[in-house]
Every structure is written in structure tokens, then in C-alpha cells.
């Protein structure tokens, strides 16, 4: 059994997401059987987070995720890519709605506002569907509420909600294969 540990402590941006997905492909080539990701991320780009999540699900080896600090925003979806999920007792999970950067010279009329709102609501539903399917405890409607409430939740809430399987400390085994994604 070839087990790898990854410290992922970075925002989700193009450079990090591409390196992460490349590393997963490299682990396939190395015949990895398991990857355990110690995760601490402020989130970032939604589209890149979705690509990371889908890539994790496509891997032929098992992936466990462990929140060792904060998992925020789209990093929650990446975290849910683990088939086993854990959190340290002091870990937190922050949920908020999808946003976008506006153009300072952009004229916002009703049609343009409606299009942007449709993008946000469609994104919320897509992410809520993932939350519902991966937790088996939260519904799509409850996922949608998470985005409207914009709150930070603790590890006990995450366990009760099915985000994590258990709350426990994280320990790197001595002599393990460690990969780093830090920024």
C-alpha cells in the first residue's frame, strides 16, 4: 500500500489548482493507493474549486480530507471530495454566497442584474447539490440557506451535519510520503 500525505494550505487559484490536479495525476502514475489531505484554505475561484473536486472524485485511489484549521468558501466543496472526512476539534468551516467582481464602469440595468443573479443562484444550487449528496444529512435547501446565512461553523456542527465523519486531531505518521501545497 502506497499512502501519501498532502499539506494543502493555500488559496484556490489557477496556479495552485493546476499544480494540485497535476499532482493527483502523478500519484496515479506512482500507483498510490491512498491520499490523506491536511487542509487549511480560505477558498477562492469557484470554477477551479469545482475542477479540483471533480478530479478528486475521478482518482482510482481513496482520498481522505482533514480540516486542520479553516476550510472556507469553495474550499468546502474541495474538502467534500474526500471519501472520508475529518476535522481537528478547533477547525472551522465558513460558508458564504457566490460573488463576482464588478467593473467600475459597468452600467447595471435590470437585464444585466437578472443575468448576474441567475449565475449566482445557479451556482448556489449546484454547490448545494454537492453538499446534499456528500453529507447525506443536509438537503439542497439547507445548503442554499448556508450561503444566505454566511456563517462560520465549528467542527461539532460539521460532524452533526455530515460534513465530517469524525472530529479528531491530525497526526503525520513518521516516515510518511509528504507533499506540500502552501502559499
- State the distance separating the first and last CA atoms: 30 Å
Major beta-sheet overview:
8 strands, mixed
Give average pLDDT, whole number: 93
Beta-strand residue percentage: 15-25%
Structural class: alpha/beta
> Helical element count?
6
Radius of gyration: 17 Å
Return the string of H and E elements: EHEHEHEEHHEHEE
DSSP helix fraction: 40-55%
Coarse shape: globular
Task: Point out poorly predicted stretches.
Answer: none
Query: How many beta-strand segments?
Result: 8
Describe the structure.
The protein is an alpha/beta fold and 183 residues long. The protein is built from six helices and eight strands; from the N terminus they run βαβαβαββααβαββ. It has helices at residues 14-29, 46-58, 75-79, 110-135, 140-149, 155-160, and strands spanning 3-9, 34-41, 62-72, 84-87, 92-94, 152-154, 166-167, 177-182. Strands 1, 2, 3, 4, 5, 6, 7 and 8 form an eight-stranded mixed beta sheet that branches. Strand 3 (62-72), helix 3 and strand 4 form a beta-alpha-beta unit. Helix 4 (110-135) packs across helix 5 (140-149). It is globular. The chain starts with a strand and ends with a strand. 31% of the residues are buried. The model has no long low-confidence stretch (mean pLDDT 93).
